[in-house]
Automatic annotation (TrEMBL):
Residues 1-21 are annotated as: Disordered. It comes from the Bacteria. InterPro entries: Anthracycline_SecMetBiosynth, Glyas_Bleomycin-R_OHBP_Dase, Glyoxalase_6, VOC_core. This is VOC family protein. Residues 22-136, 150-265 form the VOC domain. CDD domains: SgaA_N_like.
Amino acid sequence: MTDARGNARPNGDGSARHTPGTPCWVSLMARGLAATEQFYGALFGWEFRPGPRPLGPYVRAVLDGHAVAGIGVLPPDRRLPVAWTPYFASDDVDLTAESVRSCGGTVGVGPLDADDAGRLALASDPSGAVFGIWQAADGAVAGVTGRPGTPAWNELTTYETTNVAKFYETVFGYDEDPVVSTDLDYVTLRLDGRPVTGVHGVGNALPRDRGPYWTTYFTVADTDDAADQVLHLGGQVLGGPRDTEHGRVATVADPEGARFALVRKAG
C-alpha cells in the first residue's frame, strides 16, 4: 500500500511503512466525542473503533476496516482549539523531536508511547503551527487513501514561507519547490520528487486571533453535495466550493468549529 503521495516502503514482514517525513495520519481533538462521531460518520461514512489512550479517550475512524483518522477528547480544563492535526512519519520520534527543538520549534507533548500502536509527539513550528510526529510500531500497515472519506492533502497557512519551509525541510528532509510569483507566496515540499505537503504564506491576511494553522483536505465524490451535507449536519461552509487546478474545493468547519477542506480531485 502507499499513501496519497505514493510514499511507502516495505518492512521485512511484508507490511508497509511510510517514508520519514510523509504525512501519515490526521487526528482531531474535540470536546464532545459522541456528537463528533455522529457528524463525521454521516459525512464520510466512517465507523469508529477504540484506539490507544495516551492522551485520554480516543477512537479510530475506519472505512471498510482501514483506519483513516483519529478523534480524541480535549481535557475540559484546557483551553485548546478544536482542530485537525497532521502527523508526519518518523523512524525515531525522539530524534525528530530533538531536531524540532534545535531548529526553533517546540515539543508540547511527548514523545510517548501510544499503547502498542507506536510512539508520538505533538510539536509546533517556530511560527506556532501545531503538528504531530508518528513512529509506527513494527508491522504497522500504511492506511488507505485515495477514496472518499480519506485524507488527500495537508497545507500550512502561515505568515511567510521562507523560514517556515526551511524548518520543515531541515526536520524532515524535504526538498522545496517554490512558486515563482510576485503575487503568491507558496512552497510545495517534496520527498523523492513527490509532493507531500504545501506551505502558503499570506502575510497580514492571517487572522491575528488564530495564528498559523494546518488544514487537512479530505477526498469526496462531489464537493458541492458534501458541502451541503456539512450544513445539514450543523457545520459551516467557510469558502467555496470553487474550482482549482487540483480539483473542486470547499473549506468547511464541523459543529465545534474544527476547520478542514473537501476536495474532489481534478480528472
